[in-house]
Model the fold of this input.
Amino acid sequence: MAERPLDAIHIRDLMLRCIVGVYPEERRAKQDVAVNITLYADLSTACRSDRLEDTVDYKAIKKKVVAEVEASECLLLEHLTERVAAICLGEPKVQRVKVLIEKPGALRFARTVAVEIVRERPAAGAALPCSGKKQN
Done:
């Protein structure tokens, strides 16, 4: 029997502020970023039971992402995106995550610049990436 495809929970346009960038002018004050997350999990039990404990607690994930992003001082948007993905994969029911972070105004004449990554739950015993708060 074929494996059932994973279901998706979307967190769209989470508007946050953080230090991100390599240039001195980018590191003086917090900048706007828009975080978009798609959490992939098997939601079939929750669909039948209607119980919070059978699904992904996306509010708890959102709180962790907000705390991480707003405290971060990453040089690269890529690194920040990886850190958000690691938080999401810290939820045991999440099997895969897609994270897209936009940095509006990063390029002249462009509405935004974005980095998008897809990560899957690591094999048993493997460490999750990006364990530190601040890395320069």
